[in-house]
Input
Amino acid sequence: MRKQNDANLGASNTALLVIDVQNDFCPGGHLAVEAGDIVVGPINQMIAGAQNVVATQDWHPHGHSSFASSHPDKAPFDAIEMPYGTQTLWPDHCIQGTKGAAFHKSLQADAFQMIVRKGFRQAIDSYSAFFENDHKTITGLDGYLRNRQIDRLVLAGLATDYCVAFSALDAASLGYKVAVVLPACRAIDLEGSLAAQITAMGNAGIELLEYVPN
Ligand code: VGL
Ligand code: ZN
Output
C-alpha cells in the first residue's frame, strides 16, 4: 500500500542516512551488488527533500582482515572466526582513496553534511554506521546525531542485508525511530541473508517503506 510522506525527511529531528553508495558496490565494482546503481536516482530524490543528510563510506586499508585475500586458503564469501565473532570474507573492495571507494558519480554527495568512514581498522570490519563488528567500538555517529538533536533516521543504500540492516538495527537499539526505504536499497543476499534481515528489522520495530518518500 502506498503511504503518503511517512518518512517526513524535511523534519529537523530527522536525518537521511545514505549507506555506502560507492563504486565497488555498483555494477563493475569489486563487490558489485546486483543493480546497485539503481538506488542513486531515488536517493537523490530523497536528498532533495531532506533537511539533514549523513552518509557512510566503507573505507578499508590494503590487506584488510575482512578480505579473503588476507587469509591463506580462503575464498570470498567464506566465513572465519575472528576474536569478535564470525566474519564473512569479501573480495578486496573500497580500498581507501581508490575509485572503487568513491561515491557513485551521479550521487548528490555535495549534500552530505557528515561522512562517517568505517572499516578503517585493519583487524576489525564494520558494517554498521554506529558500531564496528565487535558491537562495542563506536564510530561516533550516535554522538553526532544526539548533539544535533536528531532522533529519527531514514536509511537507504547498499547493501540492504549488510550495512543498511546492521545500521538500522543498531539505530533502533540505540533508541532512534528508524525507517528503511527498500526501493532505494539493493541486497547482496548470501544464503537467505536478505529475508533474515528483513524479518529482524521488522521485529525490531523498524518501518520498512515500499516507496520513495518525496
Ligand atoms: C558491505 C560487505 C562488506 C556493505 C561492506 O556496504 O553492505 N558489505 N563491506
Ligand atoms: Zn567492506
About this structure: The longest strand covers residues 177-186. The domain at 1-14+24-152 is CATH 3.40.50.850 (Rossmann fold). The radius of gyration is 16 Å. The chain has a mean pLDDT of 96.
